[in-house]
TrEMBL record:
Membrane topology type: Single-pass type I membrane protein
GO function terms (MF aspect): protein kinase inhibitor activity
Alphabetical UniProt keywords: Cell membrane, Coiled coil, Glycoprotein, Membrane, Nucleus, Signal, Transmembrane, Transmembrane helix
Subcellular location: Cell membrane; Nucleus outer membrane
One Gene Ontology cellular component: nuclear outer membrane
SMART domains given in the database record: Mab-21 (SM01265)
InterPro entries: ITPRIP-like, Mab-21_HhH/H2TH-like, MAB21L/cGLR
Domain Mab-21-like HhH/H2TH-like: 405-477
Name by which UniProt lists this protein: Inositol 1,4,5-trisphosphate receptor-interacting protein
Amino acid sequence: MPVGILRVCLVVITAIVNHPLLFPKENGTVPENTEEIIQKMKEREETLRLERLRLEQEIAEQEATQKALEEAAEVVEETKEEKVRWDMWTALSMVIFLLIEVWRQDFQEGNWQDTGGEEDDMAVLGKAFKGLAFPDKAILASFYEKRILGTTSDMARMREMVEGFADDLLEALRSVCNRDADMEVEDCMGVGSMYENWRVRKPFVCDLIVPFAPPEPYCFRSQIWCSSDSFPPDEQGYGTIKVCRADEHVTGCICDKTKLGEDMLCLLHSQANTSRPSSEMEDLLCFKNTQYLDADQVMKWFQIAVTKAWNRISHKYEFDLSFSLLDSPGALKIKFKSGKSIAFNLTPVVQYENSDVYFISHFPRSSLAAELPSSTHWFLTFAVYERRFIQLVSKTLPANACHLSCLQILSFLHGKQCSLTGPSGLTNYHLKTVMLHLLQARPGQDWAPEKLEARLQDMLKYLEKCLHEKKLYHFFIGNGKVPEELGFPIIFQRAEPLNLFRPFVLRRDIYRKTVDTFHEMLRNTSALINEYTVHVPLAHTNGIRKESL
């Protein structure tokens, strides 16, 4: 019974609690709040989604940046490794290059001119002679007697006449110049083929050089390419000449090299001496606004001075004097009333220190020679030493030695070939340089007159070798074997050898033309010599050949 009553009470209580009218207001707003909450939840969800996308994008960008930094670090590391390897190879290559350079210099000092006595090299290099019928001794002797000696017999009289007139002209030049302001002219000297007795081609031209010096209190101070690193490779063989006061220190004062302030004064120089007027330096034949001697200014001054000198002494002579070449300062021509003429060159030069090496204002140019770097660069000539060397060596050779005969024949053949096929890069100076090398390399007895044919072939083979290698070294520059009797300056003996054929490396067109002309000359040698040779009987020729055997 009590249990039943308890159950009824629970049912009633449950019914009352769950009745809908018990909490009318709270239960009535439930539908509206639910929709608003759902809408806010959706907006929040969208906001969270956008924030998540932004964070994902930032994370991706950071990962990409980190990856790029890692790749850059790897590239830098690889570059460092490659640089280390490259530096190692560079250092190794430099060491190898220095070893080769040292070996080359040692080889040049000991062997670079010992080529004349290497008969094996001559045989290998004489490829152009294969199949050529070279004239024998009898024909060469007849050719030399008829063509060379017959046309050069009057050279001595011509030299004497030109030297006498040049001395008179220079004496008149000194008289018309202002001794206090103009350059001082010294006595002339004969150089070149006419004074070395091997010129063969007409017209005969005497080459005279005239040293000159500045007036007091000035002097010349020169700088050559082998004494300074400021000269590039294409300016080897050149130098510059600075006009200075005799009491000026060689290195100069610091006030000449730096710009002092307006309130600073040099205690060694007064204001009047620190700067030289431009007109004063131009009167000293210097390049504009510099102290360097200008070759073009020297040319103008010398031509005007020669003209004035000739006007003073022209009444004493029965011929006319004129300049034969406008671009050469001293190319003069004597014209007689009979129509004959004599040409000679009177070229101003500057002495290098106390030697017989000279800076020459204008040098005969060839197609191979490059243009002068500027008018303040002067070419050095060793013509006086070349003449002395030939005279010195000639005293040790047999009587009537064939060294000059070989050079004369070779010069004649080359000149004739150029007249047929046009000029080439070779000059008579190149041919003389070949002879000088062989004179030093071969013993004196090899230049006996009966060995004319062999020595001429040696010169041609040596020239072929030089053309093939594009190397013909200047005889004096870099030659440590120059006889001490010449008194040749040691600075040039210690210099790097000067390759006269260096322009062939840059001018392939001229090189090809030169090689073709040389080979054509070899093929035409017999024809050119036979054209000017008296007929030699066959029996006489055979007899000479048997005797030689």
